[in-house]
């Protein structure tokens, strides 16, 4: 109900293409494209197609948007600097006085307050160097595969990437932190090599890079919120620091709670499958081992879907806003390729409810739909806490329900008899 219709339709379309067409067809090639006796979870079998084709879609969409945002960022920066260098403050014969856009009183007040309470540059630089020094000293002890010079390289290049992500997010409202994280996976993973723990080194480097880059775009959005609400930018920055410090304690605690409560945490068929963990791990494996580890024709399919993601984005931009909004999003299509289409139905049901609600009373739908959706999210999320406590206490559900297909149900009836 919160996501745009095109997001939910894209997720449903991805589920139909993958689980409705591709995986059943590839499963018929068992014994030809991959050994028939492999485990369903083996990356050298059908699971490999599911994971790496999804990765190809994600990388294609991410690379396109990365280049798009980066080009817009550089173009905007060039335009701003070029305008400043060619600005003429005094009118001359052939150059009249430049027309300045008159700001409203509210805008003038916001700008005055925002610029008055700036954060000293030396403070930000000192803080970054301090955090970099602490990370360089501590991270190699936590992840022995992540050498200290890998961390230094990450912190040297991270400010440039963080600036690009923050500026690009301001232009397009699209944070590409995950794309920069994938770049760190492939770069550090290949640098370390398989014999020196390249998989873990790449994943750890991805975590470091994503935290730096995403924090920059988040802080930029906080500054924008502070600018609009006449809040002090210094207070926004201090709040971000406090929140980050709290997250260093709260996030591991929440992870420990889930890890202890759910012993199958992260497994594909569990209540919390953590699908992106498998995707990122296999990206690291691909960066270290190369393409030789993929099953037959998997690389060809990856190339096709990688190219398709770029072509879909090109078509979306070429058609413009009027018709481009009907073109599906490759990133949303890629999620059910691995995770499955079950949640796509939930999301489309929410879209259907919102669509009918808008037809009945659009004003109320626009006003209350976010609140209803937030209530559903909070209710589902809050239940995870008592569920974790019950699991830690060893309490099992008194009733277990399972829904089977007609064919499976017939086989069970033949064994135990109809009930």
Largest sheet: number of strands, sense, barrel closure? none
CA gyration radius, whole angstroms: 26 Å
Please tell me what the overall shape is: globular
Helix percentage = over 70%
Q: Give average pLDDT, whole number.
A: 81
Low-confidence stretches: none
Euclidean distance between termini CA atoms: 40 Å
Q: Say how many strands there are.
A: 0
Count of helix runs:
15
The H-and-E topology, N to C, reads as HHHHHHHHHHHHHHH
Indicate the proportion of strand residues: under 5%
Derived structural class:
mainly alpha
Task: Outline the secondary-structure elements.
Blueprint: H1 5-27, H2 46-85, H3 105-116, H4 121-142, H5 148-172, H6 177-192, H7 198-228, H8 233-261, H9 275-289, H10 298-324, H11 330-339, H12 342-360, H13 362-382, H14 384-392, H15 406-416
Helix pairs in contact: 1-11, 1-12, 2-5, 2-9, 2-10, 2-11, 4-5, 5-6, 5-7, 6-7, 6-9, 7-8, 7-9, 8-14, 12-13
Question: Overview of this structure, please?
Answer:
- The chain starts with a helix and ends with a helix.
- It is globular.
- With 419 residues, the chain is mainly α.
- Helix 4 crosses helix 5 (148-172).
- The chain has helices at residues 5-27, 46-85, 105-116, 121-142, 148-172, 177-192, 198-228, 233-261, 275-289, 298-324, 330-339, 342-360, 362-382, 384-392, 406-416.
- It contains 15 helices and no strands.
Q: Nutshell version of this structure?
A:
Helix content is 74%, strand content 0%.
